[in-house]
Design a protein that fits this description.
By secondary structure, this protein is mainly α. Helix 18 crosses helix 20 (about 395-405) and helix 22 (about 430-455) packs antiparallel against helix 23 (about 460-475). It has helices spanning about 5-15, 20-40, 45-75, 80-85, 90-95, 100-120, 125, 135-165, 170-190, 195-200, 200-210, 225-245, 250-255, 260-275, 275-280, 305-315, 320-340, 350-380, 380-385, 395-405, 410-425, 430-455, 460-475, 490-495, 500-505, 515-545, 545-550. It folds into two domains: about 5-260, no CATH class; about 325-550, no CATH class. It contains 27 helices and no strands.
């Protein structure tokens, strides 16, 4: 078997890691928690309704599995090759008799085995639905084939990106972007209904459960195999490309490094914002000013929190160039969605989806940034130096929280910008702003604080990021069993977007006063609960230097 020794080494290493079993527990736990409310609705109903409820359980369980695979898959695969690069063992592996193909295929098969084993764990749960009626064994097998094909694509994509990119966080970011595009792009691009399930595994699952949505005269899904077929083909093709690229990984890293292009973009933008300097450049003057970008101001010793200064001037995300690029990209993305979906701007569903997507970034981005902040200092050795200074724990934690909060403040304000624009435009109701004000700030602060807490507990950046995402995923399931909507911010944003009175009347909706009041009480209760949770975690990590900061070092 090509890559057999590498595969055996990877499988044994994964079997010895606690995170392997954590992934399995979280996967099944979130799946069961998500389906518990639907199981509860099936109690005490007739056989016909029981069969319909079983069909719904099966359908939504498949959607939930696909979403969890999308979250967990890149995290399992992202460090496949970058880990070898970071440890400087990739060159040693290439010098062995194994060769690049054995390395790539061994890594691919071991990561794919982990994802397929997660799917295997759900088989008893799905086949139990057969006893309720309403679900055919054929549908279960087709669903497993679609999910398996998507696993091949996710694994192949991760292996390829891990080969050509330098750092694991970059691989994670690009993988998530590509997989989300594969799942949602056909719907957003408004392809003909018959073509949508052929491209997106998510819509393919909907096609299997509801064939008439895509083919009005079809009683069974006959074209379901197209999406898994191209997923498997694309995944294997990416692995082949990774095998070809692996001997040239260092050269490809430098070639794909966009730092120079971004710095040129910065210089051009700053020159356009300073016409006088641009004119001097064009006329040959001002040659001495080689770098037109802003420089970090020296820290005023004794005045500013040193950790806050470090987060906002030294760390990558806090540097002005990175900070403004990130904010510019988010603003362009929001305005670009208006231009791309001009015909949907008066549709309340469009604004619900935009709010959910933006708030999803508000949860994920601060969590990832905060989860990597302490572990990165531990890996580069600066945490040991900080632990030997007279710096107290409260100052350290306060500086981290304030610094990360400053870095993502524009992102947290973006949903409010969107809502204000369309309140003025007469599409959204002003109460939406109240709901967002009750949920977004406290959820953002909680993401930062719990991300820092997780970063203190886990020794590497990747483990901390994965653990933080697991925590966020578990919290996202809480609104399904109790009334705390701000713990699932995208879900809250989706349901809290209220149409204006004029638009509601045009849509034929009656008065929503009592429902709006109920949502207001839910937001108030959730905000109070979230604040209590935030206070407990924050007080815990700032109270004892030796227990958290010192032990982490």
């Amino acid at each position: 078997m090509i890559g057999g020794p590498v595969f055996l080494r990877e499988v044994l290493a994964q079997a010895r890691r606690p995170r392997t079993y954590l992934f399995q527990t979280v996967f099944l736990g979130v799946l069961v928690l998500g389906l518990i409310p639907m199981y509860a609705q099936a109690i005490g109903i007739g056989k016909s309704r029981l069969a319909e409820q079983a069909r719904m359980l099966f359908e939504w369980g498949a959607y939930l599995q696909l979403i969890i695979l999308t979250l967990i898959g890149p995290a399992l695969v992202a460090n496949a090759i970058t880990e070898e690069k970071g440890k400087n063992t990739l060159d040693l592996l290439l010098l062995t008799e194994a060769g690049p193909w054995a390395i790539v295929w061994g890594k691919f098969c071991s990561r794919l085995y982990s994802l397929l084993f997660l799917l295997f764990l759900t088989v008893p749960l799905l086949f139990a639905l057969l006893t309720l009626g309403g679900v055919a064994a054929r549908s279960i097998l087709i669903t497993m084939a679609i999910l398996g094909g998507f696993s091949v694509l996710a694994t192949g994509l991760g292996i390829f990106l891990s080969t050509v990119l330098k750092r694991t966080p970059g691989v994670l970011g690009v993988s998530y972007a590509v997989l989300v595009a594969v799942l949602g792009a056909p719907k957003l691009a408004q392809l003909p209904p018959a073509q949508q399930p052929l491209v997106s595994p998510l819509l393919d699952l909907a096609y299997v459960a509801n064939p008439t949505w895509y083919y009005p005269t079809a009683s069974l899904a006959t074209e379901w195999w197209v999406a898994p077929a191209w997923n498997v083909t694309a995944g294997l093709a990416l692995v082949l490309l990774a095998g070809l690229a692996l001997p040239h990984a260092r050269e490809l890293e430098r070639l794909l490094d966009i730092r120079r292009a971004l710095e040129a973009f910065d210089r051009a933008t700053f020159l356009l914002l300073r016409p006088g300097r641009l004119l001097r450049r064009l006329t040959g003057g001002g040659a001495a000013a080689a770098d037109d970008g802003p420089r970090a101001d020296p820290r005023p010793i004794g005045v500013m929190n040193p950790i806050y200064w470090k987060e906002t001037n030294v760390n990558t995300v806090g540097r002005f160039k990175t900070w403004w690029r990130m904010n510019l990209a988010m603003l362009v993305g929001l305005l670009g969605s208006y231009a791309l979906f001009q015909h949907e701007l008066s549709n309340i569903e469009f604004h619900k989806v935009v709010a959910a997507v933006v708030t999803g970034f508000i949860v994920l981005l601060p969590t990832i940034i905060a989860a990597s902040t302490v572990s990165r200092e531990r890996e580069d050795g600066t945490l040991d130096l900080l632990a030997t200074t007279p710096l107290d724990c409260a100052t350290y934690v306060m500086g981290k929280v304030r610094g990360i909060g400053r870095n993502i403040v524009f992102l947290a304000a973006l949903p409010f910008v969107h809502v204000i624009i369309w309140i003025v435009g007469g599409v959204l109701d002003p109460t939406t702003l109240v709901f967002f004000a009750l949920g977004i700030p406290v959820a953002t602060a909680a993401s930062i604080v719990q991300g820092i807490f997780v970063s203190l507990l886990f020794p590497t950046t990747l483990r901390a990021i994965v653990a933080a995402i697991v925590v966020v995923t578990i919290e996202a399931a809480l609104p399904l069993v109790c009334c705390v909507p701000s713990f699932n911010l995208p879900l809250m944003a989706y349901y809290m977007v209220e149409p204006s009175q004029g638009l509601a009347t045009a849509l034929g909706q009656g008065p929503q006063g009592s429902f709006t009041l109920a949502k207001l009480f839910a937001c108030l209760f959730s905000a109070g609960t979230h604040l209590g949770f935030l206070f407990v975690i924050y007080s815990l990590i700032r109270s004892d230097f030796d227990r958290y900061i010192g032990r982490a070092a």
